[in-house]
Amino acid sequence: MSELKALVVDDEPDLRDLLDITLSRMGIEVDTAEDLAAARHCLSRQTDYALCLTDMRLPDGNGLTLIKEIGRDHPHIPVAMITAYGKVEDAVTALKYGAFDFVSKPVDLEVLRNLVRTAVKLRRDDEEKSTPAPTSQAARTEGRPERSQSSQSRLLSRLIGRSEAIQRVRQTISKLARSQAPVLISGDSGTGKELAAQLIHDLSPRSEAPFIAVNCGAIPSELMESEFFGHVKGSFTGADADKEGLFQAAQGGTLFLDEVADLPLHMQVKLLRVIQEKTVRPIGGRKELRIDVRILSATHKPLKPLVDSGEFRNDLYYRLNVIELPMPRLSDRRSDIPLLADHFLESIGEQWGEPARELSPEAMEALKNHGFSGNVRELVNILQRAVTMCDGKLIRPEDLQLSNEPLPDEDSIARRPEERNLDDYMEDVEKRILENALRDARYNKTEAARQLGITFRSLRYKLKKYGID
């Protein structure tokens, strides 16, 4: 980390000295300032700081003011906020104002070092993106990966489409990748929330560390604490060995909590504490373990109504929803359907070892006019079915099977009301929906649950209820 400089802004001399010593030992030269005026003076003379650390409360103003000014005048400088112990609200506010990350007083030096390493990597990634990428041979010779603006574009191209809606998503993801703030990715099932989370990770300074994705609705309630935090041998019946939790597995990287709305209240409390303290304690463990993990979460259910009804904790909601990334429905970007269809048909051909099929103009028009309640995931399922059903290379409208048959059989619909009550009718409808979802998901129950927008446990219960194997 030679030839790097950092700016430390704090009115406490002892803390400035501590930060100066810690960063100097990491090979970073430090400028210190005791207030906003001194910080502005430093920034007028030095504009290429690798990092700025600023206190929230300063003698002549607020650290949030400095965050906004640096974001406006020096957007390449990552800024981290120093907050008082227990003032997580201040940290959340700082992240919303554009802070890269935060550290609480009293400063934990290991947490600080991790923050600095991430900030320095972010700055170096920015520098590499702004200069021509080395040739493959040069990169191999110098033993470093090729990171450039073009590599970022290639990653973002995984979000297929040219519509205004998807271009906004790409721009937002690029900005979110620079931050360490928690992000809530919202949107209907099948809109690509996990892909967005993966891209935020892949474009971030954490890209070389693990990306761990977990579906919160697929973990039985009684196993959640062990899955998230791990356990030590002998801590409960069946704990035959130490087990690493998801937070430890994601150390240094990103933990993606899919369907976070399905977390039971007792786990919401524990997750809130982990976010605030940045520590976990395995079941049966005697000491807290420091974690350095960025949390991204997703839900297809609007969380605010769940907060209002008491099903989701208000304080956890505001910790997770520091920044929201809404994913557009496929019906909101119909101009992307031809590009998506061509891409998935080529991908299906490669996976199945067959020549890629093509859509006839009539089939393409039918797709563009379809409702797509299941969004991109439904499009993939339709194309998989069409490839299976079509004769030859060309997919015709009838191969798409978009005009679905009535869910219950026609005889049951035609019966007189006195022979058929509403409950029986609705059960037939639900059973047919479950059977169709399983078939479309190739009998992968986890995928079927995702397609239906319900938890894995709910699906398992309904399959048992209707005797569907």
Summarize the structure in words.
It is a single chain. With about 475 residues, this protein is an alpha/beta fold. It folds into four domains: about 5-130, Response regulator (Rossmann fold); about 155-325, 3-Layer(aba) Sandwich (Rossmann fold), CATH 3.40.50.300; about 330-400, Helicase, Ruva Protein, domain 3 (Orthogonal Bundle); about 410-465, Arc Repressor Mutant, subunit A, CATH 1.10.10. Helix content is about 50%, strand content about 15%. The chain has 22 helices and 16 strands. The chain has a five-stranded parallel β-sheet with strand order 2-1-3-6-7, with helices on both faces. Helix 15 (about 335-350) crosses helix 17 (about 375-390). The protein is globular.
